[in-house]
Amino acid sequence: MTTELRKSFESELQSYLRECFSLSKFIKVVRNEIKINVAGAVGRIGFRFLINAQGYVLSESVSLPELRGFYNEISPPYKPKFTTNFELVMNTSMEHGFKSFSPNMGGTIDLPKNEEERRKACEWIYTKVRDIYLPRVMNLIELKPEVIDDVIMHPDYYAYPFLTILYIIKKNNLSLNDLNVDSILSKKIVGNKSFDKSLFDTSL
User: Fold this and answer.
1) Where do the domains of the chain lie?
2) Tens digits of per-residue pLDDT, 126-154?
3) Which of 3, 45, 122, 188 has the smallest CB count inside 10 Å?
4) How far apart, in whole angstroms, are the C-alpha atoms of residue 51 and residue 82?
5) What is the distance, to the nearest Å, from the Cα of residue 105 to the centroid of all Cα atoms in its chain?
6) Whole-model pTM above 0.85?
7) Pairing of β 33-38 and β 41-50
């Protein structure tokens, strides 16, 4: 029964998202995944069914060669937050407190049981992707200043939180007067306080 419900929902979700994103030349929707390709940068937003929870979680990642090249150039004396070849990795189980993706405290989107539930779930997921998860991916791919606030709020989503912020500042020629420097140099952002502080002072 669960297998058939999953097939029906995942097929409907794919069709729904494909129609919603049909005007974007950078986005391709396949089963349980949204792929984003922009000038060599690759993003993905995926949906995974958890048997124990009988519901879906969302994950997303970004591979951005330009930013990775900066990491390699700096060669920091500390390890990244995660060891994959991505600059951004997150899943909705990492969301603390309020669950942005899920309408309930369980953290998942429940497997829809009928046509009405499938329709509502598709609408809900699309809205969350459009308003929260796709902007995060696109902001990083396009190296927008908005990334800085997201890194400060969610440093565990980024391989090198401090270096990501530093590159965004330099890339966009941002004024330090417009930034919260204390937050940027806070314990949850820096990987090595003395190294990062010195890099900050000499780079900007």
Assistant:
1) 1-203
2) 999 999 999 999 999 999 999 999 999 99
3) 3
4) 26
5) 20
6) yes
7) antiparallel
